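Exercise 3.2. Students should predict the tertiary structure of the chain below and write it as structure tokens, then compare their answer with the key that follows.

Predict this chain's 3D structure.
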Amino acid sequence: MRDTVGRESGDAELIRVLHEQHGAALWAVALRTTADRGRAQDAVQETLLRAWRHPAALDPSRGDPRPWLLRTLRNVLIDEWRARSARPELLSDDPAGVGSGTTWGDHTVGDHADAAVQSWTVAAALDRLSTEHRTVLVECYYRGRSVGEAASVLNIPPGTVKSRVHYALRALRLALEEMGVAP
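Answer key:
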């Protein structure tokens, strides 16, 4: 059994060798899958961490570890995608919490030109939605109305507003994807 210092240097060497031999392939797959350098880097690091935690999977008698690493990377990416997809869209009766913020996806809007292009893109995507979905999004996000206020203006129950907003956001996301924009 190695002592702590020997184990730490051996662990560092294992990670270094894995990264040296398989890092480029893992990076290429992760970047192609996510189209986001930061997320790809996080996925590769998580994959190497899982390899470090399961050294038996890297045993030379089992053959090349690359298939295991790629399968692990796939699982990491799926887990990350599921975590992002599972985040609920929150609505409240607080108008300050609805539609606030100046972010687009994971990026903060930097200048007026970017904001204008994003505004036109969202407007084009909104035109693809049904009247009910478009109307509820306009009331809640563009006019900044709370769920209760939007329900009153649209003459529908608050629960219907929440439901329509949920499905309208999903439809908007799909419309943006069809337009080649990754929200």
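Discussion points: The helical segments are 4-34, 37-53, 66-86, 112-127, 131-142, 147-154, 158-178. The chain has a mean pLDDT of 77.
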